[in-house]
């Protein structure tokens, strides 16, 4: 096996900060574990992670790795397999915040993370989270409890959707229809939660800004 | 002109009141009482700590636990030794008055005064509403440093009576820290689990549910204090452990009771503590030594600032969200001392420590300085530095969904990376909790209820209560949006509404009932019959007879007072109180009332939102409500398993098989519990969280 692979330019330029070389090594090792020494990973490779079994939104997480919108490719839809660059790209969404970010960078940082989440909710890629998709999300969240009726999940999703509509649109007449949660509405809903501090995986600490080529 | 209360925090005003009262008592010639340590530690302190522990916001606490522990343990140790050492130096140089104070005495003094006091911190920080992070850091530190204080205090107190201190003693002292803190936590956890387990079986005796919470917590505190373990940590641990399970088991009313009792007791305690501090200042014997006191004050502040600076530098290496200098300033400035220091000083034995009066004077001076000067100036400083304030966000169902989603996502990512981080272990703990612990400690079906559902039900109930409070189902307050299910899902038939559909007449009836019953402050028992939907003349006659009998009984009791053998067994005051407190009306609904919704309303307090509970709406075609003691609802509609015949005086005659069960029924029916199982299509579940 060669040394640490090149981190491609798109990763560093768009995200403007790189992960350190040790972290890349660690991730590369993990990648090789998952792919069983192949160059690419397919969906089935994720089955080999035992702890992932218990995760109720397992499907969505795995799906997110193959979502072309997350991989910054121009096209849409799902990739069949991803290589290490793509793996790193997905991982970079979980970078922790840094002290020296200015307002604009912070805003972009936040938007990126929220976009990732949005793509997870919006499974049919039409740019809106419809009621059915939201119901699907809630059902998956509650899927860890086998004896739960679908009715409860549905009513929760309906209630949540109504709340989202009232936050985003305000008062609605009985004839208006709220199509779905767009990305702007999604941003509004997340205003109270500071995602830039919450959505990170700890070991991806950017201690030194080492660009590795 | 700003009002006094906006400048001066309440704690300062209370101390001033105490000073005045003490001065008054002294002026009259009496000896003012001093805050005795056992009263303080046994009666005044536990309610405050229990209140803090029971309502501790667990998420920010556990997220910042490392930081809090470092501040609490290392920070307090640093303060104690730094201060003790420097004061020893001062004493050596301070002239004849101070020379005889040894190193150990100074270290003891340092350990007493170095601990940040939770009561003072609570009192001051409650009013300034800073952001959650800073609040939990300072407050958490003040709670957890109790273990260190206890260990150091006892250690130095004992060492002061030794001839010499060996290395072994020091090592044992170091080990005792772990014993004290972990032992305290263990005691708390044990009692918490017992309390949770007990609450599982309280579905028949709901009125005394709050008692278990208070009782077991207090016992945890006493047990820990008995063995010189950290009582505060035991109390916190008990509160934290028992809370999720107890709240799933107890009724909504018990939950309210616990909340209000804790708040009430802790308020009273806090007030008394500060007043007593003032009085004790006037009453105590003081020995003022300029050098000692001023240098204590000075070094206290310096120690605190240095400690916070150094520790933050160290902690920031490991934190994701770093602590800014502004945060550090607030943490340092918020290190208030309070009554615990005073009480510990008061506990010192006069024979071993003859400089006790001087210590007490210095302690009081430091307390006054921190509470008055720092307490008063922290609010303008917070505004000046533009420290982030607490955001008043209402928890919405969306946030809950998103937070849970994020948790699972991060856990998944950690698993994929192969990194066993924070989320991984939290997830494992949750799964363990769900699989084993909840089954043991939560009664019935609720053990399987996922958090999202519980949260949703809680929110639904709050909204329902708000709706009722705002004047009935017809009027929608402007705060609530007009968005309905039609707006988001046009194909949905009205039947699929989240709220069950009501016909116009039913709505009118409900509105009328709610209006009449909520606006009357006190209902006489008999008048309920006239306004309910389902009055049964048979039952009404029985109730009239009951009341008549009760009056006759009371009369007879008075006459029987002087007889050696009473004719009937005398009712215990508790039982009669329970009976009067609960609604003894019991009657069966008419058989054809299946189409009418059954409303249950608590007569006592129309103002409190928690008193209104909307009962279940039976879907059409359901056979009448089955009478069962499990379906506990109170007020207008109650079901009695065994309706007694009008002839027997069953409530009072002993030996009758009906009477104990009826008694129990009456007592338990005063407090509805969580519905055992959500029935079909039932949106409102009137139970606790």
Automatic annotation (TrEMBL), chain A:
Keywords: Calcium, Cell membrane, Cell projection, Cytoplasm, Differentiation, Lipoprotein, Membrane, Metal-binding, Myristate, Nucleus, Protein kinase inhibitor
Domain EF-hand: 109-144
One Pfam family cited in the UniProt record for this chain: EF-hand_1
GO CC aspect terms: cytoplasm; lamellipodium; nucleus; ruffle membrane
GO biological process terms held by the UniProt record: cell differentiation
UniProt keyword tRNA-binding, yes or no: no
Localisation: Cell projection, Lamellipodium; Cell projection, Ruffle membrane; Cytoplasm; Membrane
SMART domains: EFh
PROSITE patterns tied to this protein: EF_HAND_1, EF_HAND_2
InterPro entries for this protein: CHP3, EF-hand-dom_pair, EF_Hand_1_Ca_BS, EF_hand_dom
Molecular function terms from GO: calcium ion binding; protein kinase inhibitor activity
Membrane topology, from the record: Lipid-anchor
Gene3D superfamilies per the UniProt record, alphabetical: EF-hand (1.10.238.10)
Family of the protein in this entry: Belongs to the calcineurin regulatory subunit family. CHP subfamily.
Record-given protein name: Calcineurin B homologous protein 3
Lineage: Eukaryota, Metazoa, Chordata, Craniata, Vertebrata
Gene designation per UniProt: Tesc
TrEMBL record, chain B:
Compartment list: Basolateral cell membrane
Membrane spanning residue stretches: 6-25, 37-56, 68-91, 103-124, 136-156, 168-198, 218-241, 262-284, 290-316, 328-347, 359-382
Catalysis performed (reactions): Li(+)(in) + Na(+)(out) = Li(+)(out) + Na(+)(in); Na(+)(in) + H(+)(out) = Na(+)(out) + H(+)(in); Li(+)(out) + H(+)(in) = Li(+)(in) + H(+)(out)
GO molecular function, one term: calmodulin binding
Span of domain Sodium/hydrogen exchanger regulatory region: 479-564
GO biological-process terms attached to the record: regulation of intracellular pH; sodium ion import across plasma membrane
Keyword annotations from UniProtKB, A to Z: Antiport, Calmodulin-binding, Cell membrane, Coiled coil, Glycoprotein, Ion transport, Lipoprotein, Membrane, Palmitate, Phosphoprotein, Sodium, Sodium transport, Transmembrane, Transmembrane helix, Transport, Ubl conjugation
A single Gene Ontology CC term: basolateral plasma membrane
Pfam families: Na_H_Exchanger, NEXCaM_BD
Broad class of the protein's primary localization: membrane
Family per similarity comment: Belongs to the monovalent cation:proton antiporter 1 (CPA1) transporter (TC 2.A.36) family.
Name this protein carries in UniProt: Sodium/hydrogen exchanger
Lineage: Eukaryota, Metazoa, Chordata, Craniata, Vertebrata
Encoding gene, per UniProt annotation: Slc9a1
């Amino acid at each position: 096996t060669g040394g640490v692979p090149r981190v491609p330019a798109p990763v560093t330029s768009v995200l403007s900060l790189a992960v350190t070389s040790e972290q890349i090594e660690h991730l590369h090792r993990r990648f090789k574990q998952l792919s069983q020494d192949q160059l690419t990973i397919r969906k089935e490779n994720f089955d080999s992670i035992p702890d992932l079994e218990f995760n109720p939104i397992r499907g969505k997480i795995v799906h997110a790795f193959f979502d072309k919108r997350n991989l910054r490719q121009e096209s849409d839809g799902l990739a069949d397999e991803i290589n290490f660059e793509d793996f790193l790209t997905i991982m970079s969404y979980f970078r922790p915040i840094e002290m020296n970010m200015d307002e604009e960078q912070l805003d972009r940082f936040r938007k990126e993370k929220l976009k990732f989440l949005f793509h997870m909710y919006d499974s049919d890629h039409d740019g809106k989270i419809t009621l059915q998709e939201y119901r699907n999300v809630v059902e998956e969240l509650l899927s860890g409890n086998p004896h739960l009726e679908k009715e409860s999940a549905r009513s929760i999703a309906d209630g949540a959707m109504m709340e989202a509509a009232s936050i985003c649109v305000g008062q609605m007449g009985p004839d208006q229809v709220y199509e779905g949660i767009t990305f702007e509405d999604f941003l509004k809903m997340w205003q109270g939660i500071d995602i830039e501090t919450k959505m990170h995986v700890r070991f991806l600490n950017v201690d030194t800004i080492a660009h590795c080529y | 002109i700003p009002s006094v209360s906006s400048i001066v925090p309440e704690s300062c005003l209370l101390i001033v009141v105490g000073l005045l009262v003490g001065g008054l008592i002294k002026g009259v010639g009496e000896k003012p009482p001093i805050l005795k340590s056992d009263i303080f530690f046994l009666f005044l302190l536990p309610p405050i700590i229990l209140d803090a522990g029971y309502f501790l916001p667990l998420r920010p606490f556990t997220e910042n636990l490392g930081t809090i522990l470092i501040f609490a343990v290392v920070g307090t140790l640093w303060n104690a030794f730094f201060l003790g050492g420097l004061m020893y130096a001062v004493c050596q140089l301070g002239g004849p008055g101070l020379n005889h104070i040894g190193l150990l005495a100074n270290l003891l003094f340092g350990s007493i005064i170095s601990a940040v006091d939770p009561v003072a911190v609570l009192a001051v920080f409650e009013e300034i509403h800073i952001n959650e992070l800073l609040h939990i850091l300072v407050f958490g530190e003040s709670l957890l440093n109790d273990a260190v204080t206890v260990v150091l205090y006892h250690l130095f107190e004992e060492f002061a009576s030794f001839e010499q201190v060996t290395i072994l003693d020091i090592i044992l002292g170091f080990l005792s820290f772990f014993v004290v803190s972990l032992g305290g936590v263990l005691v708390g956890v044990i009692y918490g689990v017992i309390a949770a387990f007990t609450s599982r079986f309280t579905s028949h005796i709901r009125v005394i549910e709050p008692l278990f919470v208070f009782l077991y917590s207090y016992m945890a505190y006493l047990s820990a204090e008995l063995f010189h373990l950290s009582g505060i940590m035991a109390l916190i641990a008990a509160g934290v452990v028992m809370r999720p399970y107890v709240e799933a088991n107890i009724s909504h009313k018990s939950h309210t009771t616990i909340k209000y009792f804790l708040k009430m007791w802790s308020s009273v305690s806090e007030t008394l503590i500060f007043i007593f501090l003032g009085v004790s200042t006037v009453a105590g014997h003081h020995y003022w030594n300029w050098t000692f006191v001023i240098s204590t004050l000075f070094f206290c502040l310096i120690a605190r600032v240095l400690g916070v600076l150094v520790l933050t530098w160290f902690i920031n290496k490991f934190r994701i969200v770093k602590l800014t200098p502004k945060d550090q300033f607030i943490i340092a400035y918020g290190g208030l001392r309070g009554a615990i220091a005073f009480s510990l000083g008061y506990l010192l034995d006069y024979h071993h420590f003859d400089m006790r009066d001087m210590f007490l004077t210095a302690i009081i001076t430091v307390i006054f300085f921190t509470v008055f000067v720092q307490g008063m100036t922290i609010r303008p400083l917070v505004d000046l530095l533009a420290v982030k304030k607490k955001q008043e966000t209402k928890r919405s169902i969306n946030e809950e969904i998103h937070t849970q989603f994020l948790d699972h996502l991060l856990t998944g990512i950690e698993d994929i990376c192969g990194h066993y981080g924070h989320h991984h272990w939290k997830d494992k703990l949750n799964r363990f909790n769900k699989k084993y612990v909840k089954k043991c400690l939560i009664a019935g079906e609720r053990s399987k209820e996922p958090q999202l559902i519980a949260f949703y039900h809680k929110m639904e109930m709050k909204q329902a209560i708000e709706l009722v409070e705002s004047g009935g189902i017809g009027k929608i307050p402007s705060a609530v949006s007009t968005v309905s299910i039609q707006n988001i899902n046009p194909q949905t038939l009205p039947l699929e509404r989240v709220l069950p559909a009501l016909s116009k007449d039913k709505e009118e009836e409900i509105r009328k009932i709610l209006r009449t019953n909520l606006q009357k402050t006190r209902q006489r028992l008999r008048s309920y019959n006239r306004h309910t939907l389902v009055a049964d003349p048979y039952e009404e006659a029985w109730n009239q007879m009951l009341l008549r009998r009760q009056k006759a009984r009371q009369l007879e009791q008075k006459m029987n007072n002087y007889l050696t053998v009473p004719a009937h067994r005398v009712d215990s005051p508790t039982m009669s109180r329970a009976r009067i407190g609960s609604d003894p009306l019991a009657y069966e609904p008419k058989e054809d009332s299946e189409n009418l919704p059954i409303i249950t309303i608590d007569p006592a307090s129309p103002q409190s939102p928690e008193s209104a509970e909307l009962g279940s709406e039976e879907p059409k075609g359901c056979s009448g409500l089955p009478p069962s003691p499990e379906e506990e609802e109170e007020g207008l509609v109650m079901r009695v398993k065994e309706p007694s015949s009008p002839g027997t005086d069953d409530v009072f005659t002993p030996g009758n098989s009906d009477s104990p069960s009826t008694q129990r029924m009456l007592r338990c029916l005063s407090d509805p519990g969580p519905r055992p199982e959500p029935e079909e299509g039932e949106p409102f579940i009137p139970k606790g969280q």
